[in-house]
Amino acid sequence: MNFNLSEEHKMIRDAARDFAQNELLPGVIDRDENQHFPAELVKKMGDLGFLGIMVDPKYGGSGMDTISYVLIMEELSKIDASASVIVSVNNSLVCYGLEAYGTEEQKQKYLTKLATGEFIGAFCLSEPEAGSDATSQKTTAIDKGDHYLLNGTKNWITNGGRADVYLVMAQTDRDKGSHGINAFIVEKGMNGFHVGPKENKLGIRGSDTHTLQFNDVKVPKENRIGEDGSGFRFAMKTLSGGRIGIASQALGIASGAYELALKYSKERKAFGTEICNHQAIAFKLADMYADIEAARYLVMRAAWDKDQGKNYDVSSAVAKLQASKVAMQHTVEAVQIFGGNGFVKDYHVERLMRDAKITQIYEGTSEIQKVVISRSITKT
Ligand code: CAA
């Protein structure tokens, strides 16, 4: 067992760290305040290869492994979790979904542009009445010969108003349950496709979240992904990888808050000494350090499983469950260490605390991760 990062992995991590410090940090408070989507920064991340990290270079990707992906995600998320969710959805859900399950034509037409950042992708599974209960899709896609007719509503879609390509799950045969669901590629601007108003969110406010409406959208037959009826399994498999991305986002949020709290505790004085010298603060920092280290190993384990071609459904759920719990718990502690300053936007930790919450909700709530884990460990 080797716990050391390779020199290449260290270089990738350092490049992401530099980008986050130099490019993401300067405007992050303003983007959060004004719900401003970082379009220019997304373009720069595309140029750096961050939008197609694991995609084969023959489709315009960076050809890196999942360990590299989580290292990049952690560094971006320390500074700006709104930027990192754009990276995570584009990589894990859209690029991976197309590369693993798309036809060669679909890869040439869409993946090559998504991997370079020329296009942005969105993943559309959740509905007003089908969030955790993802098999209960109400969106329908009726087979009309050379095309499907798509009708329905999708909710809380990351990159919803900014994407060029949307992977949309829909029921094609309700009687078949989860085997009657298909995944489709829908393009921005198709007739009958409407983007609803932007959500006003608690956290990750720089990311772009919308409800989408599909009214008789004609989706060409060749835009279905995979075999007929494979859409639910496509969504589940893709989400397993997505959970590695969100676990690394949660890890980054936690470690970003920890680094800020540690630095502050060495500068801020109370009762005649730096506050890190008070055990009340030192023990908080020790707990943060230990929990973040543990979460990091779980995230790395899930990434390693994926890179080794092992099943990562459970290890990704474990990593997401733990890392998101650590992110929520310790961003609250970071605010506490900062005291009154922690409640003020200039010090960043209140934003990290707000951003942490979504990591316990999207790409499967913590309860859903426990469903995945408990089903696996109690199976006879
Ligand atoms: N890989 C492949 N197939 C899988 C699978 C996986 N990981 N998980 C389930 N399946 C298959 C099952 O084997 C089963 O197939 P068979 O019928 O052939 O046996 C089929 O899918 C149905 O599975 P279940 O019976 O387990 O389905 P269920 O209704 O009990 O649901 C669930 C299982 C785990 C609760 C699932 O519904 C789930 O994960 N829900 C959460 C959905 C979610 O994560 N939504 C996030 C939205 S996306 C998002 O947030 C993106 C963003 O914008 C940031």
TrEMBL record:
Listed cofactors: FAD
Stated name of the protein: Cyclohex-1-ene-1-carbonyl-CoA dehydrogenase
GO molecular function terms noted in the UniProt entry: acyl-CoA dehydrogenase activity; flavin adenine dinucleotide binding
Enzyme Commission number, as recorded: 1.3.8.10
Highest taxon, organism lineage: Bacteria
InterPro entries the record matches: Acyl-CoA_DH_CS, Acyl-CoA_Oxase/DH_mid-dom, Acyl-CoA_Oxase/DH_mid-dom_sf, AcylCo_DH-like_C, AcylCo_DH/oxidase_C, AcylCoA_DH/ox_N, AcylCoA_DH/ox_N_sf, AcylCoA_DH/oxidase_NM_dom_sf
Domain Acyl-CoA dehydrogenase/oxidase C-terminal: 229-377
Domain Acyl-CoA oxidase/dehydrogenase middle: start-end pairs: 122-217
Domain Acyl-CoA dehydrogenase/oxidase N-terminal: 6-118
Family affiliation: Belongs to the acyl-CoA dehydrogenase family.
Keyword Metal-binding: no
Repeat listed as a keyword: no
Top-rank EC class of the record's enzyme: oxidoreductase
Keywords from the named record: FAD, Flavoprotein, Oxidoreductase
Pfam families: Acyl-CoA_dh_1, Acyl-CoA_dh_M, Acyl-CoA_dh_N
